Amino acid sequence: MKSTTDHQASAAIPASRAGGWRAVMFLVVVLAYLAATGYVAQSDLGLQNLVLVAAVFGILAISLDLVAGMLGLYSLGQGGFFGIGAYMTTILANDYGWNVFGLLVFVLVATGLVGVAVGAMSLRVSGLYFAITTFIFTLVLTVLATDMVDVTGGLQGWLGPAFPDFPGGLQWLGTPLVWCTMAGLFLSLTLVWNVRHSPFYPILLSIRDAEPFAEAAGVRTAAIKIGVFGVSAAMAGGAGWLFSFLGVVSPGQFDWSVSLNVLVMVLIGGINTTIGPVIGAMFVSMFPNVVNINPWLQEIVYGALSILAITLLPNGVVGIAKRVLAPLVGSLDPKTDIVAVDVATAAATLPAPSALATGSEIIVECRGIEFGYGLGPKVLRNVDLAVQRGHIHGLIGPNGSGKSTLANVISGRLTPHAGQVLVKGTRADGMPASSRSKLGLRRTFQAAQLVKELTLTQNVMVGLFDRVPRIVSRAALWPMLASGRRDLAAMHRRSAETLALVGAGEWTSRQVGDVPHGIEQLTQLASVCVAGPDVIVLDEPATGLSAKEVRHLATILANLKTQGVTMIIIEHQTRFLFPLCDRVTVLNAGEVILTGSADEVRADPVVRQVYLGE
Ligand SMILES: Nc1ncnc2c1ncn2[C@@H]1O[C@H](COP(=O)(O)OP(=O)(O)OP(=O)(O)O)[C@@H](O)[C@H]1O
Question: Transmembrane region positions (predicted)?
């Protein structure tokens, strides 16, 4: 098998003209940013304060967008992390004389660790419950900050520390806090932009929208959620560190309304967009200064504008801008059909498994599997299954007989109550789904688990997660690393090639939300084939496909078999399944009633009675 690393090594990006233009654009943006920062740093205090507050809230909004936009974790705890950063800086600098830059490191680490602890809750609660839990976290911190008067100064708070001046020779640069804050904003934007342009981005979105898909591709979703939440909390703590230099630090500046306001900023600017949260932060923080009217009228106008923006612009200001600019960028030529596959080519070029079929080696084995949901009756009873390497093994049975449950037990979504699962001779029943992909076991789902807002290619790239080294650790710098650009190009190419080989090559840059069901199914298949698996478990792959699409799917699966890929296929459409199968196992009411060739199964009177209804 040609390994992914070989693939990457042969995929160095040529120094393209597009890359050169991108570098020039980046340089222009950086110079403009530096010029704007220099201008503000030498302006009057009024403008400086306006920009500083907007920039600090910009960082805070980016920190929320990182978890809400990319992971779907709507945190109302950002105000709490912000407050912890500001209080730590104020108290440790004023009372204990800590160096403020040393404090920055301390604050980032401390708030990051608190974030890891809070993020761990996301494994137990999600959606609204996660938002409420983080809201309570902020509420409790505000109460503590109000009541622990000796430490926090109570409702009055403390005056924050002074920010150090530039050394003598650099004083012409103006106010150092402006430079430092704008550097913080730039770093936060760069971090998010880099992640968005790395293969970690589709992985984050797959955790958000299709967690079982991510796990089946080898992604340790729990660790990633907790880690990213820690980074987000550290960013909010860093914003708090900056905020402490702006004046008084008191509970009112970090209460629950701040967390809600930050969410409003993200929604107005555009959730899951790099620049959107900063635009929202500018709008919200500058509004009272720009619209200088009676305070109560100002609140009403602000509230009305926010409601209008959130309801009328579901993707925020950035969403509108993208829609306006889309015609200028040009639209894709939509195709509406699968593409016939050249069987010989596909067989020769689909990523191959680690070994071709040898003898009668059993590659997946279930021994005495017992399983039931909660306190309900057993759904699987003493199930034995032996799948030979290189075979297509069908799994049939009436509705509710336990086929999908068995697929989930084999692939690791469910842990059996008794019995063993062995993959290539290794005990796998105690392993999480993400570890089984390392054994070469992949799966597809009955209802396609994909990320609708990503392209087909990006979805397929998720399947390469454990085939490319250090995707997570390189994500923050990805586009800046030569290895990152090379690996991304290789992943992109290999994903597009695999899509082409399953017959969806004309759709690679379309979003999953815009393609028909048949193409979704092929994308699922490509996302597992791209990794060159040894075994694929397919749960009702022909459901919802037209007759032509079913024939096409049968061709692809037959091709995979000639490559040596073992498949366990759950399917009701026996006319599609039986010609493909080497062996078929029939389940009824959670028990195996027969395993044999398709002809034996077809001829068995019990099977004809319970399943074929004869
Ligand atoms: N999450 C769940 N919680 C409780 N019971 C479940 C759950 N999932 C499935 N079941 C029950 O377990 C039994 C087996 O379901 P399963 O989906 O494995 O059957 P199946 O053979 O795949 O059915 P189908 O062909 O309709 O997909 C059914 O009685 C079903 O109602």
Answer: 20-41, 50-76, 96-121, 128-149, 169-193, 226-250, 262-288, 300-321
